[in-house]
Structures are given as C-alpha cells and as structure tokens.
Write a structure and sequence with these properties.
Layout lengths: L2 H20 L4 H15 L4 H36 L2 H13 L4 H17 L4 H18 L6 H10 L1 H6 L6 H4 L2 H4 L7 H29 L24 H16 L5 H15 L7 H30 L2 H11 L5 H16 L2 H11 L1 H5 L5 H12 L9 H10 L3 H30 L1
Helix pairs in contact: 1-2, 1-15, 2-3, 2-14, 3-13, 3-14, 4-5, 4-6, 4-12, 5-6, 5-7, 5-11, 6-20, 7-11, 7-21, 11-21, 12-13, 14-17, 16-17, 16-19, 19-21
Length: about 425
C-alpha cells in the first residue's frame, strides 16, 4: 500500500465532504461514504472498515454523549413549548431594543447569548428571537441582513466555546477526556470573551454605519419568507420565573459540580415544575425533545466514525507526525488540527469529537495543563466551523429568509475572522498562563 495514496485518499474524502454537504446531502450519509473512500485509497477492506473503525467511533461517541444530547434537547423543548424562551427574549428586547438601531442589534445578540448560556439550543433560539426582532427592524428601518450579524454574535464562539461554565456541548465534551470541568481555564476564557464581544460590537456598529451611508433600509433585504405575524394568545410565563430553569442548569453544573447530564435533567425538572400550567402535554414535550435528539447525535456520530476511520490509516500517521513536528508550542499544532477538522466537517462538535478521539491523548501525555488543553481546543473548534456548508449557517440563513450572498459575510467576519483574531492572542496567552 502506497503511503502517499493513503494521504491522497484522506484529502479527497475531505473534499467530497465539503462538496456533497454544499449540495445538500446530510452528514449521516456522507460520513460512511467518505470513510469508504478513505478505505479504498488506503488499501483497506471497505466492509471491515465500516463495521470496524467507523462503527467503533460512531458507537463510542454515542455511548459518551447520547444522554447529554437527550437531556439537553428535552430541556430546550420545555423552554420552547412553555413560551419561557420567548418571555426572556421579549423582556430583554423591551429593555434595550427601543433606544436606537445599534441597541436593537445589541439586544438581539444579548438575547441569543442569554438563551444559549441557559442551555437553549441555537435552533430554538432563532425561531424564538426572529419574530420578536423583525417588527423592530422594520420600525427602525434596519436592513434585515444585519439580523445575522447580531444572531451569530450571540450564538457563536462566545457562548459556545469561550465563556467559562457554559453548558454548551462543545464545552462539555473535553471533560470526558481530560477530567476537567466546564469552568476550565476561566481567566483565559474571560479575556477571550471580552475580546470577541468587543470585535463583534465594533463590527455591528461599522456595518450599520455603512448601510446608513448607502441609504439602505429594511426593504432592501426583506426576508424572502416574510409573512404577516400572527399574535399568539397563549399567556407566557413571567420573565423571572422563566430564568429559573436555565439558572438551575448553570448553577448545578458549575457551583455543585453535577455531571452535565444530571445538571440538564435538574433544569428539566425545574422547567416542568415552573411551567406546569404553560405546558399543554408534558409527554408531548418530552417526546418532542427526544425526537429532536436524533439528527444532531447521529450527525455528530457519523462525523466521529469518519474521523476514527481516518485515524486507522497509515496516511493519518504521516499527517499526525507532520502536525506534531510544527515548530513552537504543541498547542499550535493541536489548534491547527482542530481548525482543519471543524472546517471540513462544518461542525464544531463533529470536528472537535474527531480531535478528542484521535489526538488529545497524545497532547495530554506530554504533560500539558489539562485546563489549557480544554479551553484552547474548544475555542479552536469555534473558528472554522461556520463555513458556507455548515448546518448551523445554512439553517440560520434559511430560517431568516436570507441567502448566502446577502448575509454570509456577517457570519464570516463576525464569527470566523473575529474568532481567529482572538485565537492569535489566546494561544500565546495560554502558553504564558499555563
């Protein structure tokens, strides 16, 4: 078997993932297909590869994280069905959003940040925030494409990877491999959080000024799926009571050091009690949350299975040796590997899972600080995950009624470029601090 062909097979399979994802195929199908391509180029038996390394990685990830995904999805469904997420969003927007166009953008970012830090999934958040934000964008004649700039600020790297104690799946995953907690490397996380907030606030202000200078208003990028909003008659829970379940998750996870699954289940119990009269059917809500678990966990497992297939090839040993030989601190090579895997898969959790399964043990064995490894690898997963083929990117644009041409630049600059700039500071800072 030609070692160079094995490397070529990995590269070709990665290219296939990007192309097929952009054409609309799901990763649950692409993952095993790409794994089969890797096996062929590496001279491996395709069937034995798919039933061996591929399914080994798939099952390994599911065994570690299925219950976390399940409890998180049920919690998010409680926040959605009860109207609690909408109550929080409406209150924050009423407090901040009427002071001017920039405050509308900032309040949308603040709402998404609060909700995602409270354990509510991005997919729930966008359906919650968009109908509340749209009338204010119209009223203040703010170009609708700027909604994405504010939304990506709130749901992106800040709450997903940087804020210490965040209940995001990305911040939870390394705890299973490094023995750390979600509060790992708090000083580094706080510094990077302030930096990313400053960059995104500046970017939104700059874009708003540019739009005003061009005379661009709401109608110039009105959503293609806009329809007359139907007022809901269902009473919402109060703002303060709506905050109780998310706070229960964050406190039990960080103050009481609960395992992530138990922290999220604690949030579910608080939500069931606090929103008892606002839930039409608890069984229906639980079933809805359970069903919402399927696609995210299967897609991520498919990513991991592909990664474990790559790790079983001779070509991967060559690539690993090359990465490990990069001059400078080892954390630089680890970050580059994470950039590559999350960029190709279009998924922070999928790419991060591959790195954790295949590489993190080597860096941990070097005696590097586990908290530093945790925070840096998690933050690295939130840089190139928002490529045009990313599921989160595609969903956010589609739900907002916008195209890549209209709004992807806000994802690129507000998430990818801004986070990369922060990482250029974070890596040397991590080396100095730890």
């Amino acid at each position: 078997m030609d070692l160079n062909m094995s490397v070529v097979g990995i590269i070709v399979s990665l290219g296939a993932i990007v192309v097929l994802a952009l054409r609309g195929l799901g990763i649950a199908f692409i993952g095993p297909l790409a794994a089969a391509m890797v096996a062929i180029f590496s001279g491996m038996d395709v069937f034995k590869t798919l039933t061996g390394p591929y399914m080994g990685g798939f099952i390994s990830y599911a065994s570690k994280f299925f219950l976390i995904f399940l409890s998180a999805s049920i919690f998010g469904k409680y926040m959605e069905d009860s109207g609690a997420a909408k109550a929080i969003a409406g209150k924050l927007l009423s407090l901040v959003g009427h002071k001017g166009p920039f405050y509308v953008l900032f309040s949308v970012a603040l709402i998404t940040l609060v909700l995602t830090l409270g354990g509510v999934s991005m997919f729930v958040v966008i359906f919650t925030v968009m109908p509340i934000a749209r009338p204010l964008f119209k009223e203040m004649n703010i170009p609708w494409h700027l909604f994405i700039a504010a939304f990506i600020f709130g749901i992106g790297s800040l709450s997903m990877t940087m804020v210490p104690g965040s209940p995001s799946i990305q911040n939870i995953m390394p705890t299973k491999y490094l023995g750390t907690t979600t509060m790992a490397a708090p000083l580094l996380g706080i510094i990077c959080s302030i930096m990313i907030m400053s960059l995104n606030a500046w970017y939104m202000h700059w874009q708003l000024k540019k739009c005003h200078a061009r005379g661009e208003g709401y109608a110039d990028s009105a959503p293609s799926n806009e329809s007359e909003e139907i007022a809901e008659t269902k009473p919402l829970p109060g703002f303060l009571i709506s905050l109780v379940p998310p706070l229960a998750v964050v406190i039990s996870l960080n103050a009481f050091k609960f395992e992530p699954m138990w922290a999220l289940l604690t949030g579910c119990i608080f939500a069931a009690v606090c929103f008892w009269k606002h839930i039409d059917s608890h069984f229906k809500t639980i079933n809805g949350g359970t069903n919402n678990t399927a696609i995210p966990i299967i897609n991520t497992c498919a990513d991991v299975g592909y990664g474990m297939t790559v790790a079983a090839t001779a070509g991967f040993k060559i690539i690993s040796a090359y990465l490990m030989a990069i001059p400078g601190p080892p954390i630089v090579a680890l970050s580059l590997a994470t950039f590559m895997m999350t960029g190709i898969t279009g998924s922070s959790s999928g790419g991060l899972a591959i790195v954790l399964e295949t590489l993190i043990g080597k860096y941990s064995a070097m005696g590097l600080n586990p908290e530093m490894l945790h925070r840096v690898v998690v933050m690295s997963s939130g840089v190139f995950d928002a490529m045009p083929h990313s599921g989160a990117t595609v969903t956010a644009l589609a739900v907002s009624g916008l195209t890549h041409r209209q709004a992807y630049r806000h994802v690129w600059y507000g998430h990818v470029v801004a986070t990369l700039l922060v990482m250029l500071v974070a890596i040397p800072l991590a080396v100095l601090l730890y």
